Amino acid sequence: MLVARRSVSGTASRARLRVGFILARRFTLCAFANFVDVLRLAADEGDRSRPILCEWSILSDRMEPVASSCGVVVQPDARFGDPARFDYVVVVGGLIDEIPNLSPQLMDFLKRAAAARIPLVGVCTGAFILHRAGLMNGYRCCVSWFHHADFLEQFDGLTPVSDQVFIIDRDRLTCSGGASSAHLAAQLVEKHVGTAPARKSLQIMIMDGDVRAEKPQPGSPLDLVSTDDAVRRSLLHMRQSIEVPLTIAEIARRVGLAKRSLERRFERSLGRSPSECYMSMRLAEADLLLRSTDQTITVIAAATGFCDVSHFTRTYRRYRGTLPDRTRLRPIGED
Predict the structure, then answer these.
(1) What is the pTM of this model?
(2) What is the pLDDT of residues 71-127, one digit of tens each?
(3) What are the start and end residues of each CATH 1.10.10.60 domain in the chain?
(4) Quick one: DSSP state of residue 118?
(5) Is 213 helix (H, G, I), strand (E, B) or coil?
(6) Sign of the alpha-carbon torsion through 228, 174, 20, 106
C-alpha cells in the first residue's frame, strides 16, 4: 500500500503550491503518479523529496484505502475539510464504470471548492467527474481520444476537446491523462514556483521539457466517432494494431461479425468502409510522427504499417496530395 508523503498542515509553510488530490475508485495510477512526482521533484533541491516549495495531500471522506485500476492501493492522509487550504484540487479519474459510485461527500466538497473559487483539475476521466458534479458548464474540457465517444454519450450537448494534451480554461484545468498529467503539473509549478523547478522535474522524469497545451494527442482521428458498439470495438482494434495492421476479416472475427456485415455497419455509422477508416488512422499517426518527431521516413513508414518507404510515400501522396517530407516542414495545426 502506498501512503501519502505529505499533508498540507495549518502551520506556517514555505510552500508556494498546495495541492489536494481526490482519487476516484480504480483511478489511473500513472496519471496520479506523473502529476505528484512533478510536485515532489520541484519541491526540494536535488532529489531529496522534502515537501518544501510544494505540498500535497490525498483527500477522503472516510480515510479508506483507494485501489487504482491496476490494483495498487493508496492510503489517503487527510479528510476533505476546508478546500481553501489548497491552491488546486485535483480529481484523478479512472475506469468509467466507477463514476456513478462517487460519494455525496465528494461531490459536496467539489462544489464547495468551486464556490470558494479554488481551481479544479480533472485528470484522465476526472473531467467526467467534474461534469457529473455540474462544474464544467461553460468551460472547455480536454478528454482523451480514447474516451471521446464515451464522453459524448454521457454528456449530451457538450463537445469535448480531444486534439490537445491539456486545457486551461480560467479556473478549470483538464488533461487527457498519462504523460500529459506531468506536463499540466509542470505548468502549475512554472506558474507558482518557477521555470527552473518545472524544467528540472520533467528532465529527471525523462520527459520533453516544453510541451504546451496545444500539442496534439497521439490517437485516433476525431471524425471516427461512432455509437455502434461493434464499430467502436473495431476502431479500437485498429488503433491497437497500427504497426502491424490486421485484415478487415480478422477485425470482423474479433468483434463477432461477418466481414460484409461489419462493412455495412461502418457505412451506416461513419459513411466509410473499414479499410478507409483504418488508412485514415494510420496516416493520422504518420502525420503526428512527421510533425512532432525527428524519426526518419523509413522508421515512420514501418511504425504505421507500410512494407517500405516507396509504398508509404505513394499512399501518403494519394491521400494527402503532398509528400511526407513537405508535411514535416509545416507547423502543427497548419493544413
Answers:
(1) 0.68
(2) 999 999 999 999 999 999 999 998 877 777 789 999 999 999 999 999 999 998 898
(3) 229-329
(4) -
(5) coil
(6) negative
